[in-house]
């Protein structure tokens, strides 16, 4: 079936307006020229020091927080009501609060600036209004920036003047309101009112002026001292890394730390060049600086001693010299992209053209150490637009990238398309077209291109907005012959070619399990054959692993440990799947300064698009700004390009403070991996074969001689754009399923069978009664003509098959034997209701049903009486996985029919009910399929199924 075409609906209008308003507020309030204490001097360094001193002299004392409440906010009246704190502040006075209760000001003992503070402090926390208050003391008049947030409404006053009034419904977060406020000398009174209809109530406050003012000063330094631009950027970067941007309070500690890091770096590089005179001169200079620091380090030394400041700069310069003498830097030029982060911060939405922000281009940096000059490869050959993820050809003469133009003249202009250009700027050509987003291109050794595309169609299952699926696709070098090579039913990202010719990529894999945790590393052949989990498919930390690239000369892969509810940024890791396939044991943290976002909290800095030079040294994009959670915009210039190592050294290569720089690629030729030929497939048959060597080979012990068959289940990609609209059952956000049937398992645990190709499938190992002992929580698929062999069910992936002959391969492949009516497509009225009608309705029907339980097939608003009755008995009676279950994978007897009290009750002879074999099979199929009601996402077809009608087999 032709995939559901994507429309530009990635952001709802209200979200877009919110983002625009926030960006406007940032620009108008925080970068006001009048707030910048810029004092120009003869040199840029004197100018900087004088200006930051002016910031420092705006001495402020933040008083304690106090709160009072609750006041009444029933039916939203608290937002407009002027309660007593708006008329007077008397910390010792008592007032009448909600419901006539006596309330008075309380000290906010746990309130901390820079974090969300809860105001759910009362017995009744619904429909409340709460005031918070503090005094800010200023030694002189000053303008400062403040950051505010609230859950829900927010009104603010300073010295009796209303600053803002936002009648909104939202969760509290930093930077929801950014203001510049004028403080008078002496005491300044700040009052906030927060009103909450229901749920959590809270507020956020932080000073936002210091970093913004420094940024403004840097902009003016670059304007007034253009010849020193790179020197300014590098030194400001050192100071920001060390927390010295507004003075030298910690300069002694910084000197000691960087002397230690320089020593580690030097010794490691000298070990690489063992037997040579590498870095001999630098080694002598480092020893001199170490001795000088020892002389300075005595009780009489002053923290702001100019000698320490001078030593600080000399240590940093030497360490930078050492870093750029690295033998791995056999290149001096970089290819990279400049781009603005997308409007919607999410791992999926960041790649949709309709969320793009215009600006940037594809650039080369002509000198790593000097940070320039730059060359814009595309120049003005394309209209203003957004650029994504360039990739360099193996011979380093061509660049392929994704681009979306800003001015929409046709429907296609809303989407990212792939383009190719020669490195010298000639030969620009568009490779893909249509109303699809195409991105993440990667050259293959045979000159074809693998990329990510929304062409297959479908949507994510757990989003409250349209999020189209995108998966691996393949095309010829000229853009022809585009075809889908992955049939996953969720999103995929970031393909790269391994040294053996396979493709490594990120795959979202959440069949009947938690949606957040499983964006893990996979491999496949370029044809899409043999998809295999590489790392993390059963791990909950990190949540996501993006941007895989093989580390040169090793079997390890570098990746980015990222968040689910944000864009693809986080902490750099190296994965050794020879050690293990899950958990933290196979993981080396290259950047332990950044925790794994979301799974370990939300770090204050982040990395992007790492490129490994070795196990120790990397190119990467880095941001001093924290990763932003879902839906919040990210700062435009948050990322710069760096050379870094696992010791903790990080040297700036290039940064444009107005726009992010990402995807650093060495400008050099690369060795081509071997070409993996495709398996010839009979064109007339869309099928392949599976061989299972031994179902009992499992990380979880399966009882011997218990498995008699495999059930083959086809998964259905979602065809409607919003989560649970419509629902398939009561678990929520389920994977669509249809049961194709069963195939036999031999006495030695082997199976050999034909299955449809280019279709997402999972298998369930069945006992003699047709109930699942073990089930996949993932999926696989075949290419046409492919034979895919697996060792067992949930077998350890880092062990090879035993050398033995198996019974199933001594015969022709089995054909899938269809299940009973209602299996394909799955339909509760046709699969389960006949069993209930035959055995249950005589007691659980009519005017007085037994125990009040109605099991008739009459329709309800969404399902049938029988389905809702059974499901409302609880998950113990009808065992199923709820939405976002914490269970990672199934263990024998923990799932479906075999773990259902309904089955146990019937087996025990419930009121003499005896089911025939087909009735047991029908119940088992339903329970083992997570108790779904519908077998389609299409509302019109669901209406037919609800009535008990048959629908056609889905083509997609």
Give an overview of the whole structure.
- With 956 residues, the protein is α+β, with helices and mostly antiparallel strands.
- It contains 13 helices and 44 strands.
- Strands 1, 2, 5, 7, 9, 10 and 12 form a 7-stranded antiparallel β-sheet that branches. Strands 6-13-8-11 form a 4-stranded antiparallel β-sheet.
- Helix 5 (251-272) runs parallel beside helix 7 (306-323).
- The longest helix has 22 residues, at 251-272.
- It is globular, with a radius of gyration of 32 Å.
- The model is unreliable at 1-35 (pLDDT under 50).
Annotation keywords:
956 residues; alpha+beta; seven-stranded antiparallel β-sheet; 13 helices; 26% strand
Main sheet properties? 7 strands, antiparallel
Gross morphology: globular
Radius of gyration from the CA trace? Answer: 32 Å
Count the helices. How many? 13
The helix/strand class is alpha+beta
Give the uncertain stretches in residue-range form.
1-35
Percentage of residues in helical conformation: 10-25%
How widely separated are the two ends? 5 Å
Topology, number of strands: 44
Percent strand equals 25-35%
The mean pLDDT is 89
């Amino acid at each position: 079936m032709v995939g559901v075409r994507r429309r530009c609906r990635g952001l709802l209008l209200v979200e877009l307006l919110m983002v625009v308003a926030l960006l406007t507020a940032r620009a108008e309030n925080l970068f006001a020229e009048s707030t910048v204490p810029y004092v120009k001097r003869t040199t840029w360094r004197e100018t900087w020091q004088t200006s930051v001193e002016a910031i420092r002299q705006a001495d402020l004392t933040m008083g304690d927080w106090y709160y009072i409440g609750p006041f009444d906010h029933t039916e939203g009246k608290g937002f407009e009501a002027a309660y007593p704190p708006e008329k007077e502040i008397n910390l010792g006075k008592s007032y009448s609060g909600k419901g006539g209760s006596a309330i008075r000001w309380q000290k906010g003992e746990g309130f901390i600036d820079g974090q969300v503070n809860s105001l759910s402090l009362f017995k009744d926390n619904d429909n409340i209004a709460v005031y918070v208050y503090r005094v800010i003391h200023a030694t002189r008049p000053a303008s400062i920036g403040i950051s505010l947030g609230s859950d829900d409404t927010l009104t603010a006053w300073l010295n009796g003047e209303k600053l803002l009034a936002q009648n909104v419904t939202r969760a509290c977060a930093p930077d929801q309101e950014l203001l510049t406020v004028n403080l008078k000398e002496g005491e300044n009174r700040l009052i906030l009112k927060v009103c909450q209809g229901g749920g959590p109530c809270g507020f956020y406050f932080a000073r936002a002026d210091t970093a913004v003012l420094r940024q403004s000063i840097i902009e003016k330094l670059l304007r007034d001292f253009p010849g020193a631009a790179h020197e300014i950027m590098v030194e400001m970067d050192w100071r920001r890394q060390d927390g010295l941007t507004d003075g030298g309070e910690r300069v002694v500690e910084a000197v000691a730390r960087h002397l230690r890091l320089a020593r580690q770096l030097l010794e490691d590089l000298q070990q690489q060049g063992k037997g040579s005179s590498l870095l001999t001169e630098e080694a002598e200079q480092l020893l001199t600086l170490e001795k000088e620091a020892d002389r300075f380090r005595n009780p009489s030394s002053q923290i702001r001693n100019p000698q320490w400041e001078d030593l600080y700069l000399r240590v940093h310069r030497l360490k930078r010299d050492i870093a750029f003498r690295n033998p791995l830097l056999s290149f001096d030029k970089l290819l990279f992209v400049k781009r603005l982060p997308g409007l919607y911060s999410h791992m999926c939405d960041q790649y949709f053209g309709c969320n793009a922000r215009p600006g940037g281009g594809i650039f080369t940096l002509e000198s790593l150490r000097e940070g320039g000059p730059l060359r814009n490869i595309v120049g003005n050959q394309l209209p203003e637009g957004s650029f994504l993820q360039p990739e360099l050809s193996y011979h380093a003469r061509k660049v392929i990238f994704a681009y979306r133009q800003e001015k929409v003249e046709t429907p296609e202009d809303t989407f990212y398309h792939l383009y190719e250009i020669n490195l010298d700027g000639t030969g620009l050509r568009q490779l893909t077209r249509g109303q699809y987003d195409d991105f993440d291109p990667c050259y293959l050794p045979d000159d074809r291109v693998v990329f990510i595309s929304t062409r297959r169609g479908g949507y994510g299952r757990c989003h409250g907005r349209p999020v189209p699926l995108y998966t691996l696709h393949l095309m010829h070098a000229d853009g022809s012959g585009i075809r889908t090579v992955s049939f996953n039913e969720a999103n995929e990202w970031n393909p790269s070619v391994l040294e053996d010719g396979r493709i490594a990529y990120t795959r979202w894999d959440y069949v009947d399990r938690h949606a957040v945790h499983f964006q893990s590393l996979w491999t496949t052949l370029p044809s899409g054959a043999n998809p295999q989990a590489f790392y993390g498919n059963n791990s909950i930390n990190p949540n996501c692993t993006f941007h895989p690239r093989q580390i040169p000369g090793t079997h390890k892969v570098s990746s980015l440990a990222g968040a689910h509810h944000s864009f693809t940024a986080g902490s750099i890791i190296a994965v050794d799947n020879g050690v293990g396939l899950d958990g933290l044991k196979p993981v080396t943290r290259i950047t332990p300064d950044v925790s794994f976002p979301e799974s370990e909290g939300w770090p204050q800095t982040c990395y992007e698009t790492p490129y490994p030079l070795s196990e120790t040294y990397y190119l990467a994009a880095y941001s001093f700004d924290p990763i932003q959670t879902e839906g919040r915009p990210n700062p435009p210039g948050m990322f710069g390009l760096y050379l870094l190592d696992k010791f903790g050294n990080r040297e700036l290569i290039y940064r444009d403070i107005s726009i992010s720089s990402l995807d650093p690629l060495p400008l050099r030729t690369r060795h081509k991996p071997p070409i993996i030929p495709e398996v010839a497939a009979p064109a007339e048959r869309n099928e392949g074969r599976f061989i299972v060597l031994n179902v009992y080979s499992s990380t979880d012990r399966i009882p011997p001689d218990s498995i008699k068959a495999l059930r083959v289940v086809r998964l259905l990609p979602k065809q409607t754009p919003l989560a649970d609209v419509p629902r398939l059952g009561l678990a929520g956000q389920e994977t669509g399923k249809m049961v194709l049937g069963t195939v036999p398992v031999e006495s030695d645990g082997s199976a050999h069978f034909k299955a449809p190709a280019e279709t997402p499938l999972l298998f369930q190992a069945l006992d003699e009664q047709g109930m699942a002992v073990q089930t996949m929580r993932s999926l696989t698929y075949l290419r046409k003509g492919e034979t895919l062999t697996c060792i067992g069910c949930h077998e350890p992936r880092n062990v090879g098959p035993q050398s033995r002959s198996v019974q199933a391969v001594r015969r022709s492949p089995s054909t899938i034997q269809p299940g009973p009516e209602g299996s394909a497509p799955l339909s509760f009225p046709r699969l389960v209701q006949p069993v209930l009608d035959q055995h249950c309705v005589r007691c659980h029907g009519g005017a007085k049903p037994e125990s009040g339980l109605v099991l008739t097939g009459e329709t309800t608003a969404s399902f049938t009486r029988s389905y809702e009755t059974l499901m409302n008995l609880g998950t113990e009676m009808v065992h199923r996985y709820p939405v976002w279950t914490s269970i990672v994978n199934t263990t024998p007897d923990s799932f479906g029919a075999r773990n259902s009290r309904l089955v146990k009750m019937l087996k025990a002879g419930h009121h003499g009910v005896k089911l025939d074999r087909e009735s047991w099979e029908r119940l088992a199929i339903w329970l083992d399929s997570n108790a779904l009601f519908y077998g389609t996402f299409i509302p019109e077809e669901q209406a037919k199924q609800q009535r008990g009608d048959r629908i056609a087999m889905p083509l997609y």
